[in-house]
Amino acid sequence: MEKAGGSPSAGGSYPQKNAEILSSQYGINLFLAGLLLTFAWAVHAVGISKSHLLSYLITLMLIQLLWMLWYLCRSCTQRRLIRDKDTHAGARWLKCGITLFAVITLILDSFKIGYYIDFSNCLSPTEGIFPVTHAVHTILQVYFLWCHAKDIIQSFKTLERFGVIHSVFTNLLLWTNGVLTESKHQLNEHKERLITLGFGNITIVLDDHAPQCNCTTTTLCSVFSQGIYYLYPFNIEYHILASTMLYVLWKNIGRKVEHHQQHKTPFKFHGITVGMIFGLIVLTSTIAIVVVYLIQIGRSKIKSELALTMFYLHAIFVLALMCTAGIVALLIYRLEDRSLDNSKNPARKLDAELLVGTAAGSWLLSWGSILAIICAQAHPKYTWYNLPYSILVIIEKYIQNLFIIESIHREQEKVNDDIKTLRIVTISRGSTLSLTPSYKEIYNGRAARDNGEVPCLFKGSICRRENDGGGGAKEETSQENSLVMHSASDFSFYSSSSVTNSKRRILKNIAAFLFLCNLSLWIPPAFGCRPEYDNGLEEIVFGFEPWIIVVNLAMPFSIFYRMHSAASLFEVNCKT
């Protein structure tokens, strides 16, 4: 039995830890049940339809809506109370990003509602209820994250743990549902493309979930059905961002925070012109490549091979530039002597874990492609470009992860309090010296004007001043030499500061360049430009079904990695 005089922190940690374990197990079981239901619908299991899956998701969203409303009402009643905040969580740029994705998600929901109205004769009512519930859920959740993402909950902790973890896994299930729906659409298009590439030995069976009735307005149905799949990438990113922000909120429940001033790091375009220009060139060229790829792929064997070759050459060039930029940034870090911030920070820890964890998806695909190239008996010409591409994908993520993780753990450089501004000393032939006005502001002193008094500084202390002109040439020479030495030290400090600023400017340009490059590399797989599907070599070596399963499992993590890297690099640019 625990003694009454024991440590309160030790005694109070057991209920909190138990609540954390219980709530996490609740969330995992909630997720596994939904995952199994999603899988059963995907493989057309007997007795499982899409309405069952949507009913489950609607129920989860309604429960989360009730919890968020309760939390918001309780927060309004306790508005006057001072609450702890995690200054590292819920950055403004992250909130703006999730708001943008949420707006596009609302457009997606409106398309789904329109699609249901056109096919209402043969669709389940749940397919109309789901987008309406999802739209309400999206609006309230974004508002909740804007207002309370930084909260450190200290009351009703057990109940709040279950509410927050329920929200985390609800978003993960909605993310899974979006990934699966989008992947099935991409898979159907991929099967049709393989025929044009000459892989006739692969069995083509389209997985069709289209409604079994005619549309009331054909034109609108075509717009809704095609538009939905172009909007899914934004919906997928919205839910994964929401789940990560809610997870940080869950980790912060009951946390003791050290109160210290957090320096704001606004984003500025000044000094990153070079990085932005090169990054925009990459972004523009990538969009052009994706458009040409989607037009050419599947039209004929020659056009498909040219589209794949064009994609690989462009990607190799971009990845080589990114590797070079990352290596330069790491070399600059090696030249600097700055300590790392190892304080407890759930948001920063999650960022690092997500970078490494989601990079594994790309690494899995890359190693599969490398193995297929080595083991394949026949090698079409365009498949050889896949080898350097796959190798560079692995290396680039290694280097970029090192750069981002070290950047977010580096302490921000502090301004030296002893020397706030450069003091410019002009020495004339006489004993009168001219000091900059900033000297008077810092030391609250008064510079001599007409009487010849000269203040001089030695590491913050004031030296003796000559008041009469009869000190002799020796004392005057000694005083001038001291001032010259001190002036030289000031200019030495200025030179060191100039070098530091140059390094910082290079790092900011590298971060800006990599930020735009990651956005560029997010676009191709998110909008259907996936050579892992289309080159056909991996399907021959591993078999069609096994390789498609690997791609469908790994691709969502690869897509998320690029968006998460872009978000992290934006933070690095603000912090540098």
TrEMBL record:
Domain of life: Eukaryota
Family that this chain belongs to: Belongs to the otopetrin family.
GO molecular function: proton channel activity
The name this protein goes by in its record: OTOP1 protein
Record-annotated membrane-spanning stretches: 26-47, 53-72, 93-117, 129-146, 229-250, 271-295, 311-333, 354-379, 510-528, 540-561
Major subcellular site: membrane
Localization in the cell: Cell membrane
Cellular component terms (Gene Ontology): plasma membrane
Record's bilayer topology term: Multi-pass membrane protein
An individual GO BP term: inner ear morphogenesis
Alphabetic keyword roster: Cell membrane, Hydrogen ion transport, Ion channel, Ion transport, Membrane, Transmembrane, Transmembrane helix, Transport
A Pfam family assignment: Otopetrin
Keyword Transport applies: yes
